[in-house]
Predict the structure.
Amino acid sequence: MQRPRIGAAADRDLVAAFRYYLHEAGAAVARSLERAVDDALLHIEEFPGTGSRRYGHLVAHGEVRFWTLRKFPYAIFYTEHATGIEVIRVLHQASDIPVHLD
């Protein structure tokens, strides 16, 4: 399977999270976030069906699943299509997830 595609909103989410950790905690922690995202994307690529469907009913354009990052309070929301996996959002778990997915 191919590497998951990162959608525009997810890309903005990742940039914001990276900048936050870079500013608040330094480069080493920001790089650790990047590694956690890469690890999660590899897991999603290999086992796309293992993500939770908890918020799936909130998105009309496909079955949404999510997978959480290790050591960081973020979840990667994605859909699986015949052409591959698309990451639609990367959201902080304390955010109002239904509002962001709507």
Observations:
- The helical segments are 8-25, 27-46, 97-101.
